[in-house]
Amino acid sequence: MKVAVEQDKCVAAGNCVSAAMDVFDQRDEDGIVVLLTDNPPDELAEEVRTAAAVCPALAIHIKD
Amino acid sequence: MVGASAAGLSTAEALRRKGFPGRITVLGDELHPPYDRPPLSKQVLSGTWEPERAALRTEEHLSGLDLDLRLGEHATGLDPASRTVRTRSGRDVRADAVVIATGVRPRRLPEQDGLAGVHVLRTLDDALALRKDLLSGGRLVVVGEGVLGSEIAATARTLGLDVTLAGPLAAPMALQVGPLISGLLKELHEERGVRLRLGSGVAGLEHAAGRVTGVRLATGEVLPAEVVVVAIGAIPTTDWLAGSGLELDNGVVCDARCRAAEGVWAVGDVARWQHEGLGRRVRLENRTNVTEQAIAVAGAILGDPAAYTPIPYFWTDQFDAKLQMYGVLPAAAEVQVVEGDPAARRFVAVYREAGRVTGVLGWNMPKQARLRRAEITLGEPA
Ligand SMILES: Cc1cc2nc3c(=O)[nH]c(=O)nc-3n(C[C@H](O)[C@H](O)[C@H](O)COP(=O)(O)OP(=O)(O)OC[C@H]3O[C@@H](n4cnc5c(N)ncnc54)[C@H](O)[C@@H]3O)c2cc1C
Ligand code: SF4
C-alpha cells in the first residue's frame, strides 16, 4: 500500500492520527499532517483506510 | 441515497469499504460532480484554489465505487413502507434501505429574492457568483455573525474589500464559542479592518432599481453596500418529505442509530438523532460529523447495533487564525487557557461546567487541542 498526503489541503483535524498513529502525525507548530511512512505494512492497511475515510479535508490518498 | 454531497457519497463509500456488494443509487439535484463545501468560503472564495480542487472525489475513484449516480435528479417524495423514492423525472427508485442526505439550505431574508448584489453561500455556484461580485470591489456587508458570516468577512477583507459584519450578538461566533473567545475574535477582526456593527438585529435591505444599496439595522442605521451576503443560518431540506409520515422537527428525527423508520436512515446536516452520550437529540452542521456519521449509518444498515455518540468537532479559518473546537462550548462555561498564550494568538482553552470538561478549543494549536480531547466527558454529571 502506498500513501500520500496533500499538506496544503489538510485542515489539521488530526483524525488521521487518531485512526492510525503509526502512519500519521501532526506538526507541533501548526498541526499539519506528517506522513511517518509512505509504505505502511499490511497489518496497518485497515487503519490507514479508516484514516483516509475520516479525513474531513480529503487530504489522504491511497494506492494499493 | 438521496443527496449526492458529502453525506450521501461518504455513506456509499463506507458501504463499499465494508464489503456491501449490492446496487447503490445516488440521487442528487445539483449538476456538478460531488464537491466539498468548507473550501467554498475559504480557498474558492479567495481564489487560492481553482474550483475543481473542491471536488469530493476524482472521476476515477467515483467510477471505482460502482454507483448509479444520477445528477440533476430531484427527489420529490418518499414512501417509507415500500421504501420508494419518487423523483421529478418519474424514474422512481425502490430500495431495501433509503438514506436521507439532503443537507440544509440557507435561510434568506424575505425581501432578498430577485435583488441583484445579494448572496447566500451554500453551493459552488453561490461561491463563484459571490466571488465575481467581490472582485468588482466596493462595500460588502455580511449579515450574520456566526461561523459562516465571520469566515466570509475575513476572506473578503483579505481580498481587500471594505467589509462590515452585522448581527445581533456582541461578537463574532459568540453563540458557538462563548464570550471570552469571541471577544478575541472581535479584536482580530477589528485589527484587520473589518467594521463590526454588532449587537443590533438587521431590519431589512435597502434597494434601488432592482439592486441592493444597503442594509438597514433595527436601530435605523443604514449600512451602505454594493454587495450583501446573508449568512443567518440554515434550514434542513425536508420539504420533499412532507406527507411521508416521518417525524420532521428541525431535521429528520432519528433514533440513536440514525434510523428514521424501518429501512430509512438519515445522515449529515439533515439528521437529528438521539445522541446517547449527550442524552438529547442533536443535529450537527459540520464536516467531520458527516464522515463519521456516514460510517456509522453504513454500519447500521449492515446490522451493526452500536449507537452513534461522537464528540462534536469543527474548525474554522479566519485571517491567520485556525480554530479547532471539540465537544460542547456553552456560553455559561468557565473557560481556562491551559496551554500557550492568547496574547501570542496560540493557545488551548478548556471549557468546564460543574467541574467537568465539556469542550476544548485550540487557537493555532491544532495538535495540542486534539491531545486534550480525551479530557472531555459528554452528558450530565452522575
Ligand atoms: C460555505 C461553507 C463552509 C463550511 N465550512 C465548514 C468548516 O470550515 N468546517 C466544518 O466542519 N464544516 C463546514 N461547513 C459545513 C459542511 O460543509 C457541511 O456539514 C456538509 O457539507 C454537510 O454535508 P451534507 O452532505 O449533509 O449536506 P449538503 O452538503 O447540504 O448536501 C446535500 C445535497 O443534497 C441535495 N438535495 C437536497 N434536496 C434534494 C432532493 N430533494 N433531491 C435530490 N437532491 C437533493 C443538495 O442539492 C445537496 O447537494 C461549511 C459549509 C458551507 C456551506
Ligand atoms: S485527518 Fe486530514 S485534515 Fe486532519 S490532520 Fe489528517 S490529513 Fe490533515
TrEMBL record, chain A:
Gene Ontology MF annotations: 3 iron, 4 sulfur cluster binding; electron transfer activity; iron ion binding
Is Coiled coil found in the keyword set? Answer: no
Q: Which domain of life is it from?
A: Bacteria
Cofactor(s) demanded: [3Fe-4S] cluster
Which Gene3D superfamilies does the record match to this protein?
3.30.70.20
Question: Entry's InterPro entries?
Answer: 3Fe4S_ferredoxin, Fe-S_cluster_ET
* Matching Pfam families: Fer4_13
Q: Which UniProt keywords apply?
A: 3Fe-4S, Electron transport, Iron, Iron-sulfur, Metal-binding, Transport
Role played? Ferredoxins are iron-sulfur proteins that transfer electrons in a wide variety of metabolic reactions.
The protein's name:
Ferredoxin
- Organism, per UniProt? Paractinoplanes tereljensis
